[in-house]
Amino acid sequence: MPEQLLLPPLTAVRAFEAAARYGSFTRAAEELGMTQAAVSYQIKQLEDRAGVPLFRRQPRGVQLTPDGAQLAARAGEALEILRVAFAELRQTTEDTLVISVIAAFAASVLGPRLWQFQAENPDIATRIDINQKQVNLEAGEASVAIRIGDGNWDGMRADHLMRPEITPMISPAYIDRHGPLTCLEDLLTAPRVVAGHPAWDRWFKAAGLTPPCTKNQHDKTMGSQIFEVQAAKAGQGVTLLTPTYYRQELANGELIQPFDIVVESGRPVWLVYAERRRNSPAIRAFRKWLLAEMQILVVAG
């Protein structure tokens, strides 16, 4: 049989790839503008052609078989290559590059610098989606994401950006209200923003001090450093913040880091994108730019 006859119909491949991403024939049909029965038919045609089942049909949705999972990864990559090829023929790189990002990173790193990426890549439209939740990159909810974690996500590639270190910071307003911090022991009685934050214990121990009792402190976090830094600037108390995020404020005196001791506050920060989209021109351009910017930012610390 001529080799080209072994290629399955593109319609069947698209139906299979969408159903694999969503784990649902219904959602695949919605994306493709087909009926659920049509999606099921296309996938059955593909299974007959392959000679193996690609999905296990379940009461709620479908699940890929091992053979189906192997094909899904290659099918997604192949469709992405085709999409990029046609985009290049149209002399355009992408649709909008949607960047899902945690709030503190967006405000402190991306916000002040993204214009540089846009100036260097005028053909790539960008949109920042501030989101603390993990979006589905496989389903196209965003193009890339800035995530906190261990760097291991199924079907994803992840580039390490930074380790989130924190240290106590104050502001001139704090000094006006409470006086300066002249020695480590001053922190034992100083008012602290989010005094119940678990990283305080780690910091005190790194400083050789016994952490003060926080039994009645219930404020573990404000949800994001963008709120905590505002409390610090207002002079409400000593605040644990990430120096990498606030280089400019430290340089111009808006914030003061009274002691050199820093501790890790949790898991690292990563740039994450779908494996099948690793060759996307927009993602490759953004990755190259962001890694270079982070190198400068981290080294500056």
Description:
Residues 8-65 form the HTH lysR-type domain. InterPro entries: LysR-type_TF_proteobact-type, LysR_HTH_N, LysR_subst-bd, WH-like_DNA-bd_sf, WH_DNA-bd_sf. This is Transcriptional regulator. Keywords: DNA-binding, Transcription, Transcription regulation. The chain is of the alpha+beta class. Helix content is 43%, strand content 15%. It has 10 helices and 10 strands. It has helices at 10-22, 25-32, 36-50, 66-89, 103-120, 172-178, 199-206, 225-233, 247-252, 281-300; strands at 55-57, 62-64, 97-101, 126-130, 144-148, 156-162, 165-169, 239-241, 263-264, 269-274. The strands form 3 sheets. It has a 5-stranded mixed beta sheet with strand order 4-3-5-10-6, with helices on one face. A 3-stranded antiparallel beta sheet has the order 8-7-9. The longest helix has 24 residues, at 66-89.
Summarize the structure.
This protein is α+β, with helices and mostly antiparallel strands and 301 residues long.
Question: What descriptors fit this protein?
Answer:
301 residues, alpha+beta, single chain, three-stranded antiparallel β-sheet, 43% helix, five-stranded mixed β-sheet
